[in-house]
Amino acid sequence: MNPSLIRALRGPVLLITMGILFAYDQLADIRFVSSWPVLIIVFGVMKLGESMAARSQSQPPATPEAGQL
Question: What is the reported pTM?
Answer without folding.
Answer: 0.72
